């Protein structure tokens, strides 16, 4: 009985082996699947060389072209006026910005003027007797002398004898002393040098003003200036009077400016050159940050493509007989997103958009758009 069982197991094992071996042979003889060639569709462009305008981007903040830092040369109490000395306050040209109390100093000026008047009056009898020919003009000067007005200029002396006599009496020195005092008296009132707006106020009415103290800042809001630093390689391209397009950071506003000045020296540290751009607009404010586009030069027989299409070895992909190939180009200018190339022949088909994993010999198919028209 045991022998029958062992014989049956052996027969089953042999049969299973034969079945498994046959299955392996059948699978080995199956034809291998043929891989389909993958053809990538790419966006292409045909090269047409033209004149490319190279635009240099730059940025900076606006400052008023005409600005004055207000300092006091005298000392006294800041007197109140009808217009408050506050930031944002507008003033017309010649209008008083600050009045410092000068009552004490004014008295000393009047005293000096009175002394000058007395000195001239004291020599009038001598002039009548010894200088009859010049007496009328000094008499006229004395009669026009007004202590409440600016001291008039002394009569012109026509002879050395008259000059020695007048100078010897100390009248000339007294006159210039009075003029010096009057000049200082005028500094107790600070006037607006031009129509503008106060941007900073460091004192208030009633406070003590000291000599040399900064009182505020005053600007002309009609013209602003932007300082930009550019590479020294563009120094020869910048010209005074060039029109510049300006935009704000949000790209919502556009302004037009002009290059007003170009610095004649290159910064030794940064190797940049500074240019100044004037811009006028009622909506602009000092400190506003703008971006400028300066027209540097026109590059002839060139093309402009995305920077991502140019390799580190200055090569670009071209399409030739449905295969990708590489061509060496000459870059002449790089911007943040674009590059200007030369030495790419007209009619060359290049990639318009980068292809991931692209290589020379890769099979590609140019993408074509079809325009559908309705039959009439």
| Integer average pLDDT | 86
Helix content: 10-25%
Overall SS class: alpha+beta
Runs with pLDDT <50, length 5+?
Answer: 370-376
Query: How do the SSEs run, as a string of H and E?
Result: HEEEEEEEHHHHEEEEEEEEEEEEEEE
Portion in strands: 25-35%
Overall form: elongated
Largest sheet: 6 strands, antiparallel, barrel
Between the first and last Cα atoms, what is the distance in angstroms? 95 Å
Across the major sheet, the strand order is 3-12-15-14-13-16
CATH architecture of the largest domain: Beta Barrel
State the CATH superfamily name of the largest domain.
Efflux pump adaptor protein, beta barrel domain
Roughly how many Å is the radius of gyration? 45 Å
GO molecular function: efflux transmembrane transporter activity
Domain Multidrug resistance protein MdtA-like barrel-sandwich hybrid: 66-215
InterPro entries: MdtA-like_BSH (IPR058625)
Protein name: Multidrug efflux pump subunit AcrA (Membrane-fusion protein)
Account of the 3D structure:
By secondary structure, the protein is an alpha+beta fold. The protein folds into four domains: 44-52 and 301-366; 55-64 and 221-298, Elongation Factor Tu (Ef-tu), domain 3, CATH 2.40.30.170; 67-101 and 188-219, OB fold (Dihydrolipoamide Acetyltransferase, E2P) (Beta Barrel); 104-186, no CATH class. Helix content is 24%, strand content 35%. It has five helices and 22 strands. It has helices spanning 2-28, 103-130, 135-144, 160-168, 171-186; strands spanning 40-42, 44-46, 50-64, 67-71, 76-79, 90-91, 96-100, 189-191, 196-201, 208-209, 214-219, 224-231, 243-248, 254-262, 272-279, 289-306, 315-320, 323-328, 330-334, 338-342, 349-351, 364-366. The strands form six sheets. Strands 3-12-15-14-13-16 form a six-stranded antiparallel beta barrel. A hairpin with a 2-residue loop joins β17 and β18. α2 packs antiparallel against α3 (135-144). The longest helix is centred in the first third of the chain and has 28 residues, at 103-130. The chain is elongated, with a radius of gyration of 45 Å. This is Multidrug efflux pump subunit AcrA (Membrane-fusion protein). InterPro entries: MdtA-like_BSH (IPR058625). Residues 66-215 form the Multidrug resistance protein MdtA-like barrel-sandwich hybrid domain.
